[in-house]
Amino acid sequence: MTPGRSLFAAALLAALLLFLPLRATLGLADTGISARSVEGSVWGGRLVGASIGGQKLGDLNARLSPQHLFLGQARVKVDGALQGAIVTSFSGQGADIEAMNLAVSRSFGPVRLTLLNILQAHARFRGGECAEAAGRIMAQVDGALGARLLSGDLKCNGKALTVELLSQSAMERLTLRFPNAGRYEAMLSIRAADTDQATRLAASGFRETATGHILKFSGSL
What we know:
Elements: H1 3-17, H2 22-25, E1 33-34, E2 37-41, E3 44-52, E4 55-64, E5 73-79, E6 82-89, E7 92-108, E8 111-126, E9 129-143, E10 146-157, E11 160-167, E12 172-180, E13 183-190, H3 195-203, E14 207-209, E15 212-220
Antiparallel strand pairs: 1-3, 2-3, 3-4, 4-5, 5-6, 6-7, 7-8, 8-9, 9-10, 10-11, 11-12, 12-13, 13-15, 14-15
């Protein structure tokens, strides 16, 4: 886009946003963030009953960042249990998460998530497909062998947003793939330390392979 066209696009976006309610500005569909309702104007509003990936966040305060309008972006900063921003531009949508640390209780197949910590993460989607992703995820999960603390990085894998979480011992690995904002596909891999653990994993539905016991599952967020 030429400088003249960029300036025109930014000016047009700014003019439109001056008169729009907050709901009309947000591009939530592809970001994984949803809200029961959106109230107020772009200069001071709220996301009521917000959630990310199905995890409830409560109400978030939201306000437009004026300086990004001249870059052709509508960047709505959010404040609450999630610190970050929702970004909408002519090229797509996305979200930035500066910090989110939550005690949770959410089951994904045979795994229960009990703690979620996201630091300096961002994701961008174009045409419903993952275009850019980065950031650190830490999660405590409770599975077949008890509670484990796993960590890993966000990334785009083809068209899907993915994260691969690994325990400190590298004995447990959880790979999550999000083909869209409403679905997840997962593979949990555990290397048994002894025969007793191997027996317990097999009894829980894990399939033994050369690289460990594996269980695949999927569902809706």
